[in-house]
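User: Sequence in, structure out. Go.
Assistant: Echoing your sequence, followed by the structure tokens.
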Amino acid sequence: MPAIELRRAGLLAFIAVLMLFIADASTGASAAHPEGTLAQADWRAIKAAIRSQTVALKAQDAKRAFAYATPAMQAQMQTPESFMAMVQTGYEALLTARYTEFLDGAVIGGRVIQPMRVVTPDNRVLVALYTMERQRDGTWKIAGCALAPSSVQAT
């Protein structure tokens, strides 16, 4: 299969996973956002929240990592320890990544999605799709994350 067709197939798979993720994402307390209405300051705050949670996860600081989850996610997971166990079993790539890079975020169907490219130690490339929710106090919290394969190849 030619490289352009592989890229197109990878992009279509990524879009399909993204749409499934959005359809299955849990609802939260924050209001929906119309397409493309977030300020650059919001995107910076979103990336800072994800970056801070990632640092806490890698440091095995369950309590601090749990604090970046939405109240709905916290209620679902119940304790920082169960949250950390879930991350360790289902999101190991986030803990062991040798490289991460934020991609352009988007507001899709009223949901705020912040993608992050993740390169694992064995050079697999994934995209972590974070669903973010603004809280009543103006802070941004992580409502969910889905890992999707990427058509990009690590070098």
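User: And one key feature?
Assistant: The chain has one domain: 3-149.
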